[in-house]
Amino acid sequence: MSIYLFFNGQARSALNFYAEVLGGEVEHVLTYADMPEPPPLPREKHHWLMHGHMTSSYAEIMVSDRDGPEAAVDYMGFAIEIDDEDPGIAHHLFLRLSDRGEVILPFAPNFWAQGFGTCRDRFGVPWMINCDR
Fold first, then answer.
1. What is the maximal distance between C-alpha atoms in the chain?
2. pLDDT exceeding 90 applies to what percent of the chain?
3. What does the alpha-carbon distance between residue 77 and residue 37 come to, in Å, rounded to a whole number?
4. What is the rounded distance in angstroms from the CA atom of residue 50 to the CA atom of residue 81?
5. So what's the architecture of 80-132 in CATH?
6. Among 35, 65, 78, 114, which one is most buried in terms of CB atoms within 10 A?
7. C-alpha torsion sign, points 51, 128, 59, 55
8. 40 vs 95: CA distance, rounded Å
9. In CATH terms, are 3-67 and 80-132 the same topology?
10. Separation between Cα atoms, residue 15 and residue 70, nearest integer Å
11. Which 8-state DSSP code applies to residue 58?
């Protein structure tokens, strides 16, 4: 399973952020200007990503920018969950993903995990970071 996220002009920044935080590599970046036919966006948005792809040991994440009515991005009803067996690494991932975002549940030990926390990153994407016992 892969994750595909949609943004409104922030896809490139999000893709680079996820590659940096998750220790991944950006594999593909295609802008709307790269399309063989005229892009469905105004000229000032041709630099937006039509498709971006990043892989890491944690996840494969793809992104795209949208415009107009289809640009309404609502990340309700799901979260991207990452497990790491090292509580220090899991906590570090949580701190990086929540930086300039919103901490919903601070990363801390609980009855099932050495550490667990939930947040929304700076792009509004929800995350759950877990380190099992």
1. 55
2. 82
3. 35
4. 25
5. Roll (3.10)
6. 65
7. positive
8. 37
9. no
10. 20
11. S
Name residue 29's amino acid: V
Cα–Cα distance for residue pair 58/33, rounded to 1 Å: 30
pTM (two decimals): 0.91
Amino acid at 104: I
Instruction: Give the closest residue to 63 by CA, choosing from 98, 18, 103.
Output: 18
Buried b or exposed e, range 73-88, using 16+ CB within 10 angstroms? eeeeeeebebebeebe
Helices (H), 3-130: 11-21, 87-98
Going by CATH, does the domain composed of 3-67 fall within 3.30.720.100? yes
For residue 46, the 8-state DSSP code is T
- Lookup result for tokens 């067996």: 85
pLDDT digits (tens, 9 = 90+) for 67-87: 866 666 677 789 999 999 999
Under-70 pLDDT residues of the chain: 68-73
